[in-house]
Amino acid sequence: MSKQPKTAENSQMAGSDTLDRSNSNAKLEQLERFREDATGEALTTNTGTRIADNQNSLRGGERGPTLMEDFIMREKITHFDHERIPERVVHARGAAAHGYFEVTEPASDLTCAAFLGEAGKRTPVFVRFSTVQGPRGSADTVRDVRGFAVKFYTEEGNFDLVGNNMPVFFIQDAIKFPDFVHAVKPEPHNEIPTGASAHDTFWDFVSLTPESAHMVLWTMSDRAIPIAYRSMQGFGVHSFRLVNGEGQSKLVKFHWRPKAGVCSLVWDEAQKLAGKDPDFHRRGLWEDIERGLYPEWELGLQVMDEEDALSFGFDLLDPTKLVPEELVPVRVVGRMVLNRNPDNFFAETEQAAFHVGHVVPGIDFSNDPLLQGRLFSYTDTQLLRLGGPNFNEIPINRPLCPFHNNQRDAPHRQQINRGRASYEPNSIDGNWPRETPPAPSGGGYSSYPEPLQGHKVRVRSASFADHFSQATLFWRSMSEAEQQHIVDAYSFELSKVERLYIRERQVKEILAHIDPLLALRVAENLGIDLDSTSTSPMEGKLQDSPALSQMNLLPSDIRGRRVAILLTPGCKADEVGSLKKMLEAAGAVAKLLAPSAAALKDSDGQPMQPDGSFASEPSITVDAVFVPGGEYVLKTLQDDGVAKHYLLEAYKHLKPVALSGDAAQLAAMLGLEEDDGMLCGDSFDPLYMRFETALKQHRIWAREMRAKSIPA
Ligand code: HDD
């Protein structure tokens, strides 16, 4: 009987000499093989020679020169000299985590991809979040799009969903990507600004490129300053194609929906964090996972018939358009949990190589011209960044299923190929490895036989011509507070643009076509005379999409929220204890902070050790503040400028603030008006209940106007 390539089915039958492609424990063990643990081991050179002295180089005489012969020092310094690799040309700053994807509602009617086919099936994932503009060492909280790249290590090969936290993109065709990136990156003459789009070249480009209007509006919204990675939605952006076992195809958009809701920083907070804790997002992800507060998302699909590609009033192939959820609801198919931090940042996070072209049978591409160009770019960039075509052999990139082909050699080859024939067909090695018949019967990848016809042309399809109506839809879907933030963001960014004609062009040629009021409000802030506006025609189009407003995407609990508990000498021990217990029971993080990092005595005369000081954990790093009552609370805090600033700043940033017992007098003293989140009370239990309710709302938006007068 002639041999067949191993498939999920026949490998299980074939016995112990074959790797079971669906056994995830075995897969994980395979990955773990590459993890090093030096505990109890001798220090050696890279060739295994044990080292006796790692403190002193080999010298010609006690005070003489170092000898060339010192192979130990030479090896160590040579390796060090070569430690850096080129950072990613975009998305250089990022952080990542391991986890799993689990199917909740099988999608086998849509795709033959095995990892989506069976309820309860789990697939290991590695997820990297990133900013786009800044270099590796830049701050996390800058105003920017966030990358959301997921590598699924499926039994049929790796599938990478390389998306962003916004559902659209700046440009429609990949040929414009280098132009866009050159414009948004720091300016070429002085490499300023780092991690920011508030400069001339960015606004020059986007004001001359109307197709960017919709995405720029998203980046001026609160979506561009997320509070945490766990609070971000994720989007595959393009229409992809799913193909089922019968060969039927549908267009889909991928959605990640965070369990923690969609929440953002306020701009003042984001800017301050960039200085006080540039690792804010990275730290949050790391700490949450270490605490067992695992970030979680649902994976959803919007499914469209290809025949309907033009029937929504825009083209499904146009990446500057989203499909409103009111028109096509999101069908949830699974959930993703991140539950393990990487062991080594460089080996895993930095060397991870994502690629939109890493697909498995049942997942295919659409003709979106941005996606088509990406299919070229990602492998190309890894060749430079990771030093050659063997980057898929790096442990973090290796598929967890077997992989074999006749590709050979090149720098840093890991695999030792045993066969004598590295070509196909061959009769020397039995013609192995062999092709597999297409999915679903065999599991080999075959592209969807989409009919194609047309002339070879460089054109932009007329169906891509409407650049404004979805921007208008987004603007109209925002709450009042969100609209105000957008106006503030445009005003801030454009006021950093030195060339006045660029400011004016953005307002007159772009904003005026999105919404007259938006344009007028920004124009007023910049002192620009706006004589005419012409909103995009919205007749017959969806007028607003509630699914786009973050106000409708709040979480139902306080899991993962960080609460500062300000301790003072003599603070009520029972109150602090109950507060901590209740917050932690609800999955929130309680941080005990004191005037200094030293322990203080509580109301029972017992030492209470804080987790940090008011200065080391400023209010911008937490979601809410609670001041327990106590004998000296008023005296201590009213004389402490840092503490007063803490409360003022938390209030200004619209956070819940609770003042218990005597601490309540601070409210009047600091001019903090009571509201739904500025809470005072003598009795702990009701105060806590109100505090938790406010914490669920996250910010007290009704306070925003009043908070403007607070000088923090
Ligand atoms: Fe890209 C990285 C997302 C358009 C070329 N891109 C990169 C990453 C994400 C995205 C999340 C970081 C992956 C990681 O964490 O390593 N890119 C997108 C999205 C796009 C998009 C959602 C539009 C919908 N990208 C895009 C285009 C091109 C590229 C049009 C080129 C034609 N992207 C790259 C790149 C990067 C990259 C140069 C830099 C580092 C890397 O690939 O590995 O190839």
How are the SSEs placed, and which strands pair?
Elements: H1 8-14, H2 24-32, H3 71-81, E1 94-103, E2 122-131, E3 146-154, E4 157-164, H4 177-184, H5 200-207, H6 213-219, E5 234-235, E6 240-243, E7 249-258, H7 267-276, H8 280-291, E8 296-304, E9 331-340, H9 345-350, E10 363-365, H10 369-385, H11 469-477, H12 480-495, H13 500-514, H14 516-526, E11 562-566, H15 573-585, E12 589-594, E13 600-601, E14 607-608, E15 612-613, E16 624-627, H16 633-638, H17 641-652, E17 657-660, H18 665-670, E18 678-681, H19 684-697, H20 704-707
Parallel strand pairs: 11-12, 11-16, 12-15, 16-17, 17-18
Antiparallel strand pairs: 1-2, 1-9, 2-3, 3-4, 5-7, 6-7, 6-10, 7-8, 8-9, 13-14
Helix pairs in contact: 4-5, 5-13, 6-11, 12-14, 13-14
CIS-heme D hydroxychlorin gamma-spirolactone (HDD) binds at residues 88-91, 94, 128, 130, 147, 149, 162-164, 169, 174, 177, 237, 319, 352, 354, 370, 373-374, 377-378, 381.
| Major sheet size, sense and barrel closure | 10 strands, antiparallel
What's the end-to-end separation, in Å? 80 Å
User: If you compute it from the alpha carbons, what radius of gyration comes out, rounded to the nearest whole angstrom?
Assistant: 28 Å
Distinct ligands: CIS-heme D hydroxychlorin gamma-spirolactone
Helix share bin: 25-40%
Strand content: 5-15%
What would you call the structural class?
alpha/beta
Count of helical regions? 20
DSSP strand count: 18
Basic shape? globular
Low-confidence stretches: 6-23
Average pLDDT for all residues: 94
Assembly annotation: single chain
